[in-house]
Amino acid sequence: MSSSTPINLATALASFDEVYSPRIVATMNDYDVRIAHTLGEHVWHAHADTDEFFLVLDGQFDIALRNDRGDEHTVVLTEGDVFVVPKGTEHKPSSPGGSILMFEPTGTSTTGEADAESIPDHVDSTVGRAL
Fold it and tell me: Could you give the 3-state DSSP secondary structure of residue 20?
């Protein structure tokens, strides 16, 4: 991927079908810009050292959040919505279908600190895949 070549997000999303398997479309400083298809439940997880930025490109993307007391609430995002999950916040994405763009420090796992045995088969535990 050349830094002088624009990336069309619709074309990039059309190049793969897997859900919750982010593709790196660009890097900026020490951050990856990732895109992913979303469908179904993700896994409860947290990122101790980084916030997580989401932009909904298409469809709906829900993020259940859990505080230190165990109380939960869900943020419902639709096309064009942006949301940041603060570092250390336990969260569980889910979606009836859509696509998202994320900013995360390079090397950040998509499943954070989740126990490997709790990760569903359709969720790719990765630090991002090449487009």
Answer: coil
